[in-house]
Amino acid sequence: MSTIPPIYDVIVVGAGPAGYSSAIRCAQLGLRTACVDHWRNKQGQRILGGAHLNSGCVASITLLESARLYHALNHDLKKHGIHADNISLDIAAMIQRKDSIIDALGHKITDLFKLHKIDSFHATAKLIKPRQLHLTPIDGSEPYRLEGKHIILATGSSPIPLPYAKVDNEFIIDSFAALNMTTLPKKLAIIGAGVIGLELAAIWGRLGAHTVLLEAQESFLSLPDQQISREAYRIYTQQGLDLRLGARVTAAKKVGKKVQVEYQDQEGNHSLKVDRLIVASGRKPNTENLAAPEASLLLDENGYVHVDENCRTNLPGVFAIGDLTVLGPMLAHKGIEEGVFVAEQIAGKHTAIHYDTLPSVIYTDPEIAWVGQTEQVLRALGEPIKIGIFPFSATSRAQASGRTEGLVKIIAHAESDALLGVHIIGPKASELIAEAVLAMEFSASSEDLARTIHAHPTRSEAFHEAALAFKKMLSHIPG
Ligand code: NAD
């Protein structure tokens, strides 16, 4: 084994959103930077961007846009007096479009690395000492070592396998294969009505697959505000999604060209035959083999890297960011911000990260987005709160678009009037939440929002109107 001489200021392990944004920020701040990643695309070629770009959110959102369009052509156009005949579906072309988009985005990251003179290694890295990595090149060449004054671990997460529903990626598939199906299954089952299960159901359900979601929990979507979860349940089931709560899958196997799924609920045992089964039962941090035992990297009992509030691990000069830690939810934008935060710390800059104003989004159709606390958490904490709600159906823009479902809910402190949480379900919720995030970052009160002029007619008026509700002012919008 040969030792490569250059000692980098920073080596980032992982080129997903957390890793690549961290490497770029490090390089922008004048640090000599390297990034190691082992991802290969379907053709076995090297591509940056990690799971988020290649098999996660970006891939998913690309297909969701296609599915939304197809569904609108088939169902929403008539409302507008537009008739379109002979609409047909070419799923293979849809998947190819997705692949070319992620390929182009991956190459953009490569270009940014070149522009910033970041040395990029296609290899699997293992931490062997606080400042030393062992690299196994993907092309099969000799392993070697790299040294860095700082190491940033950003290896992301992967699906948790279920022993009783073994993935073959043909009939029983994981969330990656679920974004690469080239034919439409007539009947599809998904294990888990979490974020990923719902997003995949939004794609394949909107394309026409009869979709059954089997969720072990009795309650639906525990993270968002429960009023929003109830509204989501109502809307999704009205759209035709077959959502079975309290349904714990116990076994699944391929039988002929079908999958037989066994599950239990309060009424007993059930069996279901479907064309495909997607396993979307949660993700785990990629920490297996990330560090040699002698490196003594501290993990918690669930395999997450133990870090302090500055993303520092127990080892000097070693940081962990993104899905590897429990500092916040597994969200790409959390990882991106942590990547920048750590780069700035290493460069000796004054820096900060605000987890309190981290937006969450579920990319279904309609979308769910929120920031801050839910009504349930605030009531449990005994906070005096007031709530303003406004339905999109009362805005002229929603009426004009023909998409009137959903609402905006604003929670403010009853005495100080400070905004404590904003919860949205409706089309474009992922974009609308940005205004709430900014308002909370700037410590806005509900009165600040009520006095902020919003363009008319827009969906954002629902946000304004929810704030006006506190002041008991009359709605500005007719209807
Ligand atoms: P999740 O934990 O959100 O949902 C998994 C669900 O599967 C749970 O509700 C669980 O009860 C259920 N489940 C597990 N075993 C089951 C069984 N045997 N039968 C029936 N149900 C079962 O996990 P996920 O949806 O895989 O997402 C993983 C992570 O990735 C989350 O932290 C999520 O925030 C993140 N993510 C976020 C986005 C986004 O922000 N839009 C997108 C993708 C992933």
Written account of the structure:
The chain has 479 residues and is an alpha/beta fold. It has helices spanning 17-28, 50-54, 57-75, 91-115, 195-206, 226-238, 332-346, 375-380, 396-401, 429-441, 446-450, 461-468, and strands at residues 2-13, 33-37, 119-129, 132-137, 144-153, 157-159, 172-173, 187-191, 210-215, 242-245, 248-255, 258-265, 268-274, 276-279, 283-285, 318-320, 360-362, 367-372, 385-391, 407-413, 419-426. The strands form 5 sheets. The protein has a 5-stranded mixed barrel with strand order 1-2-3-4-5. Strands 7-14-8-9-10 form a 5-stranded parallel beta sheet, with helices on one face. The chain is globular, with a radius of gyration of 24 Å. The mean pLDDT is 95. Residues 56-57, 191-197, 199, 214-217, 248-249, 280-283, 329-331, 361-363 line the site of nicotinamide-adenine-dinucleotide.
Q: What level of helicity do the residues show?
A: 25-40%
Looking across the biggest beta sheet, what order are the strands in? 1-2-3-4-5
Rounded to the nearest angstrom, the distance between the terminal CA atoms is 74 Å
Q: Number of helical runs?
A: 12
Q: Radius of gyration from the CA trace? A: 24 Å
Please describe the biggest sheet, giving its number of strands, its sense, and whether it closes into a barrel: 5 strands, mixed, barrel
Which ranges are low-confidence, i.e. pLDDT below 50, for 5 or more consecutive residues?
none
Structural class: alpha/beta
Total strands: the figure is: 21
Overall outline:
globular
Strand fraction equals 25-35%
